[in-house]
Amino acid sequence: MEPNPQIESLYMLNLSTWLGLEIVGKKRAEFAINYINEGKEVKLIIVRNTIGKEASANTLIDFVQQNQLNIPIIVIGNSSHPLKDGHQAHIKNSLELKPLIQACAKTLQITAQEMSQKVVPDFFPIPILYFKEIKRSVCPVYSQDFETEEYIQRCEANVDFDPTFISQLIEEGVSHLYIKKRERLQFVSNVTAELMNELNEEEVSSEENLSITSQAVKLLGSKLTTIGVTEETIELANKNLARLKKTTAAHPKLAKLLENMINNKSGYLFKHTQILTYVCLHIIKNIDWGSPEQEEKICFISLFHDIVLENDEMAQIHSTQELRSAKLNTQERMLVERHAQMSAELVAKFPHSPMGADQIIRQHHGMLNGIGFSEHFGANVSPVSIVFIVAEEFTRIILKRETGPFDIQEMISELKQVFPTSRFQKVITLLESITF
Q1: What is the pTM of this model?
Q2: Closest to 138 in 3D by CA, of 185, 197, 173, 92
Q3: Which phi and psi angles does 179 have, rounded to 5°?
Q4: Using one digit for the tens of pLDDT, what is the confidence trace for 333-384?
Q5: Where are the domains of the chain?
Q6: Domain with residues 200-433, CATH architecture
Q7: CA 20 to 30 Å from 363, out of 17, 199, 271, 337?
Q8: Torsion-angle region of residue 7: left (phi > 0), alpha (psi -120 to 50) or beta?
Q9: Would the pLDDT of 1 be above 70?
């Protein structure tokens, strides 16, 4: 039971794909009770803690207990109503799908091995309505011929759909389109990110907004590397910048922001981007030449500096030695080595990007051409570059200690050892006032 149709769609798509579950949606507890009373087989109930003013979870817990039904209940979301005993699991953040999938699997006794060995048809069916939520697919899309039952490719990967394409198929009675089975998880992940990005942020909690921003940052990176700089990616970038700044403003204490990201199971790449934004803004707000324009520039650089990196392992590499020891293939190794250059080239194509942003991104690992890693930073580094370089190293120090304790003097001392010159140390002293 989920009142938001977009979130309900997320659950249906992910639970059917990962666990093979057939989901029936109901908007209120009484509708779910009526459905069960009709004699329908129900193996599991997933319910919002509260829907409107109704304590929906408690209503269903009471119903199941009073009728001695063997139906486990998973509750989603926080509420002012105390949750009664009798539920199998409680997922506080409605947009953390991995814990939900894991809780469902555990409750239904579906093992990880069974999930990996689940028999999947060569062409995996996706309800056609999901294709109305996206402009293009990250993999080829197929339809099935009603007479021959053969699969016909209808769309190429990363090519915009014809505006009337999906509507015409629906009018023809097509209920599903198909993805090759090896590409189904990539497709579902992309649609999940697209659906999250369209959620109304005013209707979700601050923790859920973190989940939205995390997915949206990954979505931006994926779109930039496939469709490039377009009106669509520019709009998404601006939306992400606003989200990063809003999250920073909503967390006066850095440790609380980090705690929320850990609780939300945020990946390293997103944690790095969000904490880096926080630290950069703190410095710019406290430096004598700081201004709103410089704040915009530093946030823009924070979002884009690693935008082409594909995963958390890549994002944690910050030296030549770390790159040599990383378990990456040749293509992945080259991407890490050149990511500063590639990210800078994308930024250079953005209309109205802050002046000099591409140069700072290209040099954020100390190499003038954006290729590789340097252990030393030259004397010609600009003041904004120094702020960013210091903030990124401080972010790395924070994430090494992500669960605390945070001894600010110890962290500052470590930072000063990395950057012994006076230009850097003047910036470093501004971090002594950061609040954990």
Answers
A1: 0.87
A2: 185
A3: -125, 140
A4: 999 999 999 999 999 999 889 999 999 999 999 888 999 998 887 777 889 9
A5: 5-116, 123-184, 200-433
A6: Orthogonal Bundle (1.10)
A7: 271
A8: alpha
A9: no
